[in-house]
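Following up on my earlier thread - several people asked me to post the actual chain instead of describing it. Fair enough. Here it is, all 210 residues.
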Amino acid sequence: MMTEEIQLAVDQGTMLPLMEEFYTIQGEGAYTGTAAYFIRVGGCDVGCHWCDVKESWDANLHPPTATQVIVDNAKKHAKTVVVTGGEPLTWNMNPLTLALKDAGLRVHIETSGAYPVTGHWDWICLSPKKTKLPVDEIYPLAHELKMIIHNKNDFEFAEQQAAKVGPNCVLYLQPEWSKKEVYTQMIVDYVMANPKWRISLQTHKYLNIP
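Reply from S.P.:
Thanks for posting it. Predicted structure:
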């Protein structure tokens, strides 16, 4: 049972339901191939049926951890931190990101954008989902738009979302892992016909690393 004191700390963002944290190579998007320390925060109600970390959905399964403890762990490793989930914007990200930046770290987020933006970010990777669309405020803030292609209709959805981001946002199409044999070539053909897009692959899975 969570005490009122811990619940208040979670609500304020000075504690977060930490699922896992690990140092690895970024496998997707604009920073593919670079070293990063990942902080995976529990809690998500977006409900992607193909999600490969469904164990992150229930925040109650992941112990509230002091933000400063998370920061102390992160600064032992890479200079870049990626906050992911779950859906990290479920929680107040201001305390975590301010502490990370005070420690001299570059701070990235991977988010569906389904909740209001909190935190201070050097790089926002927005990955919209049909099940719970992004809030309007995040589109002009996104540095990277990563659209997951799970079926043919996702190309149309990707174009709808691309029309909402800023002109300098980098656009990526990424095959959903279980459908990569079906859609990778289709994405190749689409990008060749629509060169504003780039291809993102989950290279960490090919490399068999976290």
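Helices lie at 4-12, 67-74, 94-102, 153-162, 180-193, 203-207. That should answer part of your original question.
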